[in-house]
Amino acid sequence: MSRIVTLLLLACGLLLSSACQKAPVIPAPQLQALPTQEILNRADAAWTAEDYQQSLTYYGEAQNRTDLSGQKRALSYERAARSALAVKEYERSLQSLRGWAGFDAKVRQTWPWNEYYATALAGSGQDDQLQDFLAGLIVSRQTTWDVRRNAALFQADHFLSKDRPMAAVPALREVYDTAPNREAKASLEQTLLVRLLDLDDKQAIGLLEVGEGQELTFPYSVMRLAAAKRLAETKPKQWDTAWRELRVLLTRGRFADDSLPRVTLRALESQRGAPRTGIALAVPLSDKIGVIGWKIVTGANIAQKQLALQGLNVEVRVVNTSRPGWLNDLNALPPGFTVVGGPLLRSDFQQIVDSKLTRERVFMTFLQSLGELDEGRDAWRFFASPQDQVRALLDLAAGKFGLSEFAVLTPQEPFGTYMTEIFSQEVWDRGLTMAAYGTYPPKTHTAWGGKVAELLGLESAASPGKSGQLPPEPGFRAVFLPDGWTQAQLLAPQFYYYDAEHTLLMGSELWSQAIIGGTDADLNYFGLAVCPGPWWAQSQRSAVRELTRRMADENRGQPDFWHALGYDFVRFAANLGNLPGGWDRKAINERLSTAPAMDWSLAPMSWSQSGKARQDLFLFQPSRKGLVPVDAQELFTKMQQVKQRHDERMELNRAKLEQKAKTAKPVLQGAAQ
Q1: How far apart are CA 655 and CA 35, in angstroms?
Q2: What does the alpha-carbon distance between residue 368 and residue 357 come to, in Å, rounded to a whole number?
Q3: What is the DSSP letter of 410?
Q4: pLDDT by residue (tens digit) across 28-46?
Q5: Domain ranges (residues) in the chain
Q6: Going by fewer Cβ within 10 Å, which terminus of the chain is more open, N or C?
Q7: What is the tens place of the pLDDT at every residue in 195-224?
Q8: What local confidence, expressed as pLDDT, does residue 24 receive?
Q9: C-alpha to C-alpha distances, 581 to 240, 335, 588, 610, nearest whole angstrom
Q10: What is the average pLDDT across 410-426?
């Protein structure tokens, strides 16, 4: 219940309790005729008897006496003000409070005086004056933090009583951010939580909506904690939802007193137990591709064991998509197994779609795209997309290096055309320029040199040096090569041959997949080459170290991308928690977009509010031992150095050609004579 309402009800109660004892009102002439000490004696007696109407009468008269001492005058002002509050004579209360402050200016620096004044303003319906008064206290640096804190809490009570919790946020945040220390912030969190838990069920649970989509910082963190606690206590069927909210607050919430979500969750779990989270995997476990499925399952089992040690009850069930009748197995999963990781093959996913199983369960597919289906409505992705690859490359080339002109050299096949469209669209969306396009026949390697020459604007495939001409400067500094690593080893030397060694070569994820364990390619041609990838085995992230350690403990060798995929998926799905009955895409997208922060072993993933997945891929350079993460500053410096050497060489060649032309001119003139 609002503290303001409590104060006012208390005043009413006091008035009623004293009504039967109330002495008759003394006429003003008789009152004025009484000696000051008698006035005080009667005032004290009325105050002690909780007869606040008489108390107001006598203390009000005492204020007018010139022979009243300083201490007794201050007490008369205070008790007259408080008595007036009790009998709802708010204007008289304000008058006494002003008189008190006029007599003793220091009293305005105390919280009791300010609380009485604010209560009188609230009771008299002067809402605008109340908000101005409280706002002045809250932002004042001449007032102690304790007074400012209490003013913010008073304002919060006022707005909560009017069912306007959002209006309470700015003042609470202001005093929290300016608290003198962590202990003060913790005390404010604790006090606000107690007050929020005094709200009725509807108001308290409604605070979940107030914090929806907000960062889990004060006061939203405390509001959501109060709401989740009340939800768990009053709606047993929504314990899963409340538990998930509490888990989010425990892992992501920012509290000065971090025991608040932890103690609340433990207390509720001791009563109801931690809800079981059911997670399914739909992956192949036989045939040639079965080895990948088993790696995913291995990573998932390791995650399940790790979560069990953290007190999370997670059950993982696997559906073997290589087995006949696997669609029936998938359909027969218990109702709690709503989230399904997979499938891995597009053909399997098509069978799921044709069987209309996407209407029954949430499929987080291990596919680069969902084809014609609507991502975020029909199904979801737990896998990097081609857009993620392009985005990572352009974030480096355009975002960090400042390049604005790009080219694409792609094989004449559907995959190349598809990747070119994605790259070009991203370039255009960023307001950059596609300066050149080029294609080459995938199987006719002898034609590739000429295709590189065309891309660079050369008139023939002959070496510029041999033709006696300087090569034109291409209108781009970076070229996208959406083909495999084997093809890249044949294309890269051509750029050197045609004096374009200063061009940044940008490969696809196919490169990182091929060279993850090392390469024996001539890396002299790949000094300015980058490629994206979702997995970095040498990462020092704690999740990678933990996965590596646990696999070693179980004699399962070194983890790779597929192990990490299963490991991350189960941990992520466990953080999502169980989905409510009758879930819809909006509920799924809300959970995905506000998913708790996680220590990923793969490159981190996130989801938009419309359910579109994004993975912030790593960028690598090839090396003898495998993939080396790109050092953007180091690579940029190297690009500048290579460009400078290129320019110097071109200038030297130009001078040689000019000297050669001058030497040849007299000979030609003599021959003409």
Answers
A1: 117
A2: 20
A3: E
A4: 567 777 888 998 999 999 9
A5: 1-125, 164-275, 277-382+538-612, 386-533+631-637
A6: C
A7: 999 999 999 988 888 866 677 899 999 999
A8: 57
A9: 11, 9, 12, 20
A10: 96
Helix (H), strand (E) at residue 156? helix 145-161
Fold of 1-125: 1.25.40
Distance CA 277, CA 288 (A): 31
Q: Do domains 277-382+538-612 and 386-533+631-637 have the same CATH topology?
A: yes
User: Which CATH number, 3.40.50.300, 1.20.950.20, 3.40.50.2300, 3.40.50.10780, labels domain 277-382+538-612?
Assistant: 3.40.50.2300
The CATH H-level superfamily of 386-533+631-637 is Response regulator (3.40.50.2300)
Q: From CA 573, how far away is CA 339, in angstroms rounded?
A: 7
Q: How far apart, in whole angstroms, are the C-alpha atoms of residue 195 and residue 218?
A: 15
Locate 423 and state its tokens: 């790259």
Q: What is the pLDDT of residue 19?
A: 40
pLDDT tens track for 303-358: 999 998 877 889 999 999 999 999 999 999 988 899 999 999 999 999 999 999 99
What average pLDDT does this structure show over 603-613? 96
Quick: pLDDT tens for 92-103.
Answer: 999 999 999 988
- The predicted pLDDT at position 666 comes to 59
Sign of the CA dihedral with 331 first, then 350, 584, and 610 last: positive
CA distances for 85 relative to 11, 29, 115, 130, 132, angstroms: 6, 25, 11, 15, 20
Strand bridging mode 605-607 / 613-615 = antiparallel
Tokens of 589: 């997208």
Q: Which residue has the tokens 């793969």?
A: 602
Q: 317 has which bridge partners? A: 280
Identify the H or E element spanning 281.
Answer: strand 277-283
Give the relative orientation of helices 145-161 and 127-139 as an angle to the nearest 10 degrees.
150
Q: In one letter, which amino acid is 416?
A: G
pLDDT digits (tens, 9 = 90+) for 500-558: 999 999 999 999 999 988 898 999 999 999 999 999 999 999 999 999 999 999 999 99
Query: Using CA of residue 512, residue 513, residue 519, residue 525, what is the dihedral sign?
Result: negative
Q: Which helix (H) or strand (E) holds 277?
A: strand 277-283
For the stretch 467-474, contacts whose Cβ atoms lie closer than 8 Å and that sit 24 or more positions apart, written own/partner, are 468/657, 469/657, 470/650, 470/653, 470/654, 470/657, 471/498, 471/499, 471/500, 471/650, 474/407, 474/435, 474/436, 474/500, 474/503
- 527 touches 641 (CB < 8 A): no
Considering the chain, what is the average pLDDT of its residues?
Answer: 89
User: 3-state class of 645 per DSSP?
Assistant: helix
Distances (CA, A) of 560 to 342, 534, 538, 551, 620: 18, 11, 11, 11, 16
